[in-house]
Task: inverse folding
């Protein structure tokens, strides 16, 4: 499919390289959201992420605070000036998020695998102008990833980005999800105008892998990073071992070597 995308996802955020989206895996309490957001804003982060509907692999875990969290994200926006982003997996999520004035949506890896679910989200987005980021499906299927991107484009969305969060594997020796970098590289070849954002948190699954994965993404000319950051990572209600404090995130970002590969 021939796609004509808008290059600016949100005003004022594409002018730096890399574009950084950061925030906790899950919104847990209003205090945790506000404290993390204030710390991230003080480090210059412009887009805040937090999941309020959490797709957990197994039942019994924390499945998100739901709509209550939308009010906290609105407060983040009002008090810090950051843009706010959350995951949507159903039409109802889309309607609630739009009603609350969320600035950016993302589709999770467990949703991208399901064309029916992606199409329902696309249908709920018809006539809406909002940036949508599409994570790769959990399985290494580039066509399924591209298909999801095309469904969202088909709804009229022109601010689209892809998130590379790695691919499920039985082998979890190093990575939680194998990076298989050739897949996002092939996506870039197929869709050269599509911004690609690396999610080192879900690839690595552990905080010590965040820095090297961010550097690898920069070396491959990715457009941005989405990193899980929590004011008290060890106590996080989901993905505790991969979250970093806003201080650590800032340190990692400042150490990145950005090479101009066009020279
Ligand atoms: C998340 O971003 O917290 C998340 C659930 O990610 P993924 O869909 O990549 O597993
Ligand atoms: Mn997570």
Result:
């Amino acid at each position: 499919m021939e796609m004509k995308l808008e290059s600016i996802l949100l005003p004022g955020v594409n002018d730096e390289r890399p574009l950084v989206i950061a925030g906790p895996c899950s919104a847990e309490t209003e205090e945790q959201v506000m404290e993390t957001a204030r710390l991230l804003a003080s480090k210059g982060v412009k887009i805040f992420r937090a999941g309020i509907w959490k797709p957990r692999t197994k039942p019994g875990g924390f499945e998100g605070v739901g709509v209550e969290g939308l009010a906290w994200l609105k407060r983040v926006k009002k008090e810090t000036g950051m843009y706010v982003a959350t995951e949507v997996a159903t039409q109802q999520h889309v309607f609630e998020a739009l009603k609350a004035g969320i600035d950016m949506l993302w589709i999770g890896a467990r949703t991208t695998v399901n064309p029916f679910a992606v199409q329902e989200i696309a249908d709920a987005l018809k006539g809406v102008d909002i940036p949508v980021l599409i994570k790769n499906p959990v399985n290494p299927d580039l066509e399924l990833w591209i298909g999801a991107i095309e469904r969202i484009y088909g709804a009229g969305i022109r601010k689209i980005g892809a998130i590379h969060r790695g691919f499920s594997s039985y082998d979890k020796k190093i990575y939680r999800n194998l990076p298989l970098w050739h897949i996002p590289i092939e996506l870039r070849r197929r869709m050269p105008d599509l911004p690609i954002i690396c999610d080192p948190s879900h690839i690595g699954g552990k905080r010590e892998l965040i820095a090297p994965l961010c550097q690898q993404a920069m070396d491959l000319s990715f457009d941005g990073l989405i990193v899980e950051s929590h004011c008290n990572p060890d106590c996080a209600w989901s993905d505790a071992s991969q979250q970093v404090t806003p201080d650590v995130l800032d340190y990692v970002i400042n150490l990145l070597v950005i090479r101009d590969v066009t020279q």
